[in-house]
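To whoever is on call:

I kicked off a structure prediction for a single chain this morning and the downstream step that reads the tokens threw a length-mismatch warning. I double-checked the sequence; it's 218 residues and nothing unusual in it as far as I can see. Pasting both halves so you can look.
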Amino acid sequence: MHAPPRGTVYGTLLNYRGALAALGDAVHKPPYKAPPKAPVLYIKPANTWIVDGAPIPVPEDVEVLQMGAALGVVIGRTACRVPAEAALDYVAGYTVVNDLSVPHESFYRPSIRFKCRDGFCPISTTIVDCARAPNPDALAVRVFVDGVLRQQNTTANLIRSTARLIADITEFMTLSAGDVLLTGVPENAPLARAGQRVAIEIEGMGRLENPLVAEGRA
């Protein structure tokens, strides 16, 4: 389907069971002292957006980048205080997103410089209609670097399902048509460097592929 005008792109931290489990006892230490009780969100601003096939700039001061395979949920109409049982009625469709990051240790509040560098959010231009994806919570997710499978997971491992995530977020803020909500990135995100090529596949959603290029050449 045709992509609606782009709104805000929201990323979600620690929404895969394995990603939260990988932190171990760290989530129980100060300053938070407990696992998150609500969605932990951040924004991928317009400078990060690039399309399928466009080069990902690798900053000069960074050796490798984390590849973040994410299901993008495209909001179809204004959603405010939406109950979980009706949440998917507000979805226009789904897409494939690469939520890139500079490797970092801050897991609750990562710095903007880690998540929001230029080109750090490739987004497929293909939006798959909801009718062709009746269950967004049972999709295989794969990441390839230079054609080699480097990560495999499934959206069945989400802590908050797609509908629950929308419901929990719209309890305190409104999502608008064209907004894209990323359901999360699996644990053990693969690393890649300039000169390599990364591809993300999500079952039924297609493939997103981009080369990594040194920043001065992108």
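Update from on-call: the warning came from a stale cache, not from the record. Cleared it. Sanity check on the structure: The domain at 9-217 is CATH 3.90.850.10 (Fumarylacetoacetate hydrolase; domain 2).
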